[in-house]
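WARN no homologs supplied; continuing
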Amino acid sequence: ASYVIGCQATGEAVVIDPERDVDRYINFVKNEGMKIVAITETHIHADFLSGARELAERTGAKLYLSDEGDEDWKYRWLDKKSGGGTYNHQLVYDGDTFNIGNIELKVLHTPGHTPEHISFLVTDQGGGANAPMGIATGDFVFVGDVGRPDLLESAAGVAGAKEKSAKVMYQSLQGFKDLPDYLQLWPGHGSGSACGKALGAVPQSTVGYEKRFNASIAAANSESGFVKSILHGQPEPPLYFARMKRDNRDGPPLLGRLPNPEKTTVSAMLDAAKNGAALLDTREWSAYAEAHLPGALFTPLNNSFNTIAGSYVPENTAIYLIVEDTRVREAVIDLIRIGLDKVVGFATPADLQHYATAGGKMIQMISRDMLDLKKMSPNGNTLILDVRRA
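OK structure emitted
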């Protein structure tokens, strides 16, 4: 989740953890009669390409970014402004504060999910408050869970990092327990994210509620118990997470305008596939199994879309979609958020049906029951894969 926090008195706003489709922040702030003057993020993300660089290019706003990470996890793109030069930026550390109008943001170093991770205590000084009203926690504390500490090892390939990171997360949570119960809690993700294993569907919470009912925080009464609990049962990270970590550290490519794929024919898509293009079929499983194009990847346009596309489509690959024309923009935005920018063309399910009716080659997935499998298994030409999760 991204957050826009604005000061009504001065008309200034900050965007926390922006994604790459930055027009929505620019338009939202404009409609509110405000201006984006600051951009920040809680950490170097693994699950999507950051929009911080894109938004800085578009608005000229000042970047406030963590410098708490070791040399492997420091931002490397701040001196790579398009056209030359350095972005207007300030590196921040634990205890630092900066103001957006009358809104104060105080930096808390909250490592564990990542070494450089920070959270922000937000105080509305314009209203006379001398204490914070809420905390933007990023991937530190979620509703019902905390950020997984294993990604440096399981996604970024840093050997031996997960247990060390879990111990660091344990220490960070001791500080969280000292925060006032009344604070609103604004997390970076909700249910369905691969950045935790038991995230709740409620979009926000309070510090006090999470202290009482968050199972991962409850497990943080002993270091050994917490480490064992938090590392157990974490889902396998999607394959594209390693690329996101790298690109967000080194510099997400600048996007400019969103890709605008052209309506094309099924035959043209198949010709492109012969030259290495990826065909993404966004229909439901029943339709895909009944008939799909040779080589087309099953990528339903739901919560699993980015996981599948990001894991099996290499970056810089030309992409063609089988998608309803009313959902083309949705698919494009999902793809650019994980750095798959070369969305070239699309055809609709109706186009696919016309192609099949005209005699075009289609592939069918045939369903088999267990008795069929038993009969087939002695055949040396049959390979049976069990893809169930443990």
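The mean pLDDT is 94.
OK
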